[in-house]
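Materials and Methods. Structural model of DUF4255 domain-containing protein. The 229-residue sequence of DUF4255 domain-containing protein from Streptomyces atroolivaceus was retrieved and submitted for structure prediction as follows.
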Amino acid sequence: MIHEVDDILRGLLTRGAFAGSDVEVTFDAPTRDWAARRNAPTIDAYLYDIREDTKRRQRGKMSLRDEQGIVLKQHQPPRWFRLSYLVTAWTKRPQDEHRMLSAVLHTLLPKEILPPEDLTGTLAGLGLSVPLTVAGLHTEARSLADIWSALGGELKPSLDVVITAPFLAYPEYRVGPPVTEGLGVQVRGTEGRPDDSPVRYHSEDSVGAAKEDFAQKHGATGTLREQRK
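The predicted structure was written out as tokens:
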């Protein structure tokens, strides 16, 4: 799931304001050594935090249906995880970096909700929309200054991009075949051994006739058993 979110974020940036440009999109840790090797304009989206969004946790089961709406399988609801990216721009001039960050804002701000058709892989298969926030309040346990200190780099302007994606890691449960016929009635007498008693099946349209016929031949000693076919 994490690599699929990487691909989604890369696609949003390369197809957005940076389409047709020579700007690279990477996911490397922006350390001091890495920054010294940069020789081209780069947007770096460093994944610095992964944690579950417990407010979205659900119970029960979800159904997987085909194109006709028939239930094929069932599984438990997915768990949702917040993937936090530290997005920075790298060029030789701060003004150019600011323009690149503005382009990131221009690209991602309209994408508050990513619909299923914009997703790929297992995320697209779940048919769920994925929320995206950019430059929101930093609510994680570590501050951005602490992150830069851990990376050994110098503090610079950055955007906090959070994509909350579903993760399905539960077994699937098979379900029974769909009901294709209406209600029917099986009629069996009680004389002799049960295995020797004939069984007749009546469709839903002939239930009334079956009951009347059974009552005439077997009286109150017979049994009726209805089952769905």
